[in-house]
Amino acid sequence: MRAMAHFLPLSRVARLVDEPRSVIQRMIRNGELATFDGMVDMNELLRVFPDVQWEDNGEFKRVEEIKAKAFSRRVMEHALPGKEVLAERLYEMSKEFAAAKTLLLHYDEVLRFLDDKLDDVMDVGDQPARQAVADLKQWLRQKLDATPEEAERAQALLAQENMMRIMSAQVTILPAGHEFFVEGNDTLLEAALRAGIPLNYGCSNGNCGECKARLVSGQIKKVHPHDFVLKEVEKADGAFLLCSNTAVSDVVVEAGVSGADDIPLQSIPTRVKAVEIINERIAALHLSAPRSQRLHFLAGQRITLTSGDIGGEYYVASCPCEDRHIELHIRRDNRPFSRHAFEDLAKEDIVRIDGPHGRFVMKLDSRRPVIFVAWDDGFAPIKSLVQHAMSLEIAESMHLYWAAGSVGTKGGHYQDNHCRSWADALDDFSYQALDTAEGPAAIAEAILAHHPDLRRADFYVAGPHALLQTLREGALARGLSPLGWHGEVIE
């Protein structure tokens, strides 16, 4: 007999089959995977992915790792939720188990009642009726005694999903529709930022109330105290602070997502983790923000750096999802901060950052293919944008073009290995290195030749004005919407 319907959210489906969420969404659009109210039936999942071995997938491996390192406190604290949250999740699952068992007992009673009624029919009916009833009873027994064809895989799938629900909770943000998972001891805010989702927040320690949100459904638990006072009418309406609560069950939350104009200017003292001299023209400066003052920014933005009385402005090259780590690419030139970075800056030195600035940021509500174009060290904001798109899994596909000169002029393709590793790891990611010696017009022509129809695309381009102008005109002529164009002039 067909198993009872069991529906799974898309983000959990993606984890179960080890595919990006964008791949699952494309399968739905193409009619390859059926959904009901945005959810996938377990039987549909078994049908579409017949070769997936659930027991070999991620959560079981994570649990085995925890078991193998059971006395490693750091591993346990990082991977497992707190004991109170864990107890709450187990309790919620036990209630579901009890409800399912009660329903099965009810079905058993119904079947016994049906069996008795069929016996009554056999007692009073004529020979054809008795034979028909006997055949029906035999058929029912055969079906009830038979093991469903997909029973083992269904059991493994349910076990895998239950393990996921114990280890993590899924969060859906309204009205934006973003989804992420809360793992370990993370608060909702920490988990969202790790996923690259720029929720509104201020101090992140419960004082300002900027991360106030509303619980629509599911269960949360307060894990950190806060000084900000919520009004009783707000609490009655489901208001809570993202920085002080975690998710016990899968939850739906109303919360604001930051745009470029929503993020306040910040001034944060950071420490130098490393000055990585990539080649004679480019250095990657790695900074670490304090635990209580991580930089709130969006991919593609820039910040002002100050060391002593020496300052300079640079684009952030790291993803907002990288916690306290901030990476910047410093070109060797005559600017004071550039000379300071190459000649004097050392590990543990203090560098103050101020910002962020700029509106060259990701359009978070788009699900279209994305084309990224970088010119020389304009790669820095593009790298940040690419990593942000990866963390959010919002793009249907990604194409990266990086035009650079020789190492001796502007630094060349100084992180070419990163780009190639992305292309190797992701099915829907392509990368092409181009030579700036060809000139902006030829570079634009070469890129557009790969994309004759741009009606469903977004462009993010960082480079000289001539490249942006030529590329934009050509892209619009190929059907690109003006809303899909995002350019940043970097000479």
Can you describe what's shown?
By secondary structure, this protein is of the alpha/beta class. It has four domains: 1-52, no CATH class; 166-254, Ubiquitin-like (UB roll); 266-357, Beta Barrel (Elongation Factor Tu (Ef-tu), domain 3); 370-489, Rossmann fold (3-Layer(aba) Sandwich), CATH 3.40.50.80. It is built from 15 helices and 20 strands. It has helices at 10-17, 21-29, 42-48, 58-68, 73-79, 83-124, 127-145, 151-167, 188-194, 232-236, 336-343, 379-392, 416-425, 440-449, 465-477, and strands at 7-9, 39-41, 168-174, 179-183, 212-217, 220-222, 239-241, 245-247, 251-254, 266-277, 282-288, 302-307, 310-315, 325-331, 350-357, 370-375, 398-404, 429-435, 458-463, 485-489. It has a six-stranded antiparallel beta sheet with strand order 13-12-15-10-11-14, covered by helices on one side. The protein has a five-stranded mixed beta sheet with strand order 4-3-9-5-7. Strands 18-17-16-19-20 form a five-stranded parallel beta sheet, with helices on both faces. A hairpin with a 2-residue loop joins strand 12 (302-307) and strand 13 (310-315). The radius of gyration is 28 Å and the shape is elongated. Residues 56-60 and 66-77 have low confidence and may be disordered.
Write down the Rg.
28 Å
CATH superfamily (homologous) name of the largest domain: Nucleotide-binding domain of ferredoxin-NADP reductase (FNR) module
Mean pLDDT: 89
- The count of β-strands is 20
Strand composition percent: 15-25%
Classification by helices and strands: alpha/beta
> In which order are the strands of the major sheet placed?
13-12-15-10-11-14
**Low-confidence spans:** 56-60, 66-77
Distance linking N and C termini: 67 Å
Which CATH architecture of the largest domain?
3-Layer(aba) Sandwich
How would you sum up the global shape?
Answer: elongated
- What's the CATH C level of the largest domain? Alpha Beta
Classify the fold: give the CATH topology of the largest domain.
Answer: Rossmann fold
> Counting H and I runs of at least 4 residues, what is the number of helices?
15
What's the main sheet like?
A: 6 strands, antiparallel
Number of domains: 4
Q: Helix proportion of residues, in percent?
A: 25-40%
